[in-house]
Write a structure and sequence with these properties.
CATH class of one domain: Mainly Beta
InterPro entries: Ig-like_fold, MSP_dom, PapD-like_sf, VAP
Subcellular location: Cell junction, Tight junction; Cell membrane; Endoplasmic reticulum membrane
Keywords: Acetylation, Cell junction, Cell membrane, Coiled coil, Disulfide bond, Endoplasmic reticulum, Membrane, Phosphoprotein, Tight junction, Transmembrane, Transmembrane helix
Structural class: alpha+beta
Order of helices and strands: EEEEEEEEHEHH
GO molecular function: FFAT motif binding
CATH architecture of one domain: Sandwich
Shape: elongated
Radius of gyration: 43 Å
Number of strands: 9
CATH topology of one domain: Immunoglobulin-like
Protein name: Vesicle-associated membrane protein-associated protein A
Amino acid sequence: MSKPDQVLILDPPCDLKFKGPFTDVVTSNLKLKNPSDKRVCFKVKTTAPRRYCVRPNSGVIDAGASITISVMLQPFDYDPNEKSKHKFMVLTIFAPPNVSDMDSLWRDAKSDELMDSKLRCVFELPSDNDKVNDIEATRSAPVMNSVKAEPTSAAMPVAADDAEMKKLLERCKRLQSEVNKLSEENRQLKEEGIRMRKMPRSDHMTSNSTNVLGRENGVAFLPSLLVVIAAIFIGFFSGKFIL
């Protein structure tokens, strides 16, 4: 009895192409599509298992679904005069209703239930045009990345400046409020000092006058100091805003 036809649709259908140079791992993708209304189990085999890594190498494909298999060729010394004899085979079988042990499924499968497709491995070296395109793509990639990164790096200081400007404005407002309060106290002390100078002098009055004048001079010094501090903050804020 002849084997049934392969139920899965393979892409590519015949050849797995690997494009060098083969100094690094080269990957070729194989797409399996299940057009039937049943679940299908698959297994991928090769004549050179030490030369390839297949992920996934087995599994179940639901009805109407598809899966992409990555076939990774390991690095080797390529000889153009040597013809590749590597082959792959995709083995399939309709999945039973309750499949749990895949090893038992494949071991107990009957030959008239199995379907298979064979693929040949083809090694290709890149052409001169491909080499030029790869070099140009490598050179242009860092330039594009740097251009994309500029708006992000430029936007961060703006947000930081906005937050810092708000803090400086709040500090300036507090300093201005303190200056106004101290100025009012200074004015009141001056008026009190003037009134006391006009009164008859005595030892007690002289002592009080001296204390008042001392407080007056001390308080008069504080607004000047706060004004200087406020000017420094405002100058710093204005400089950052202009830059």
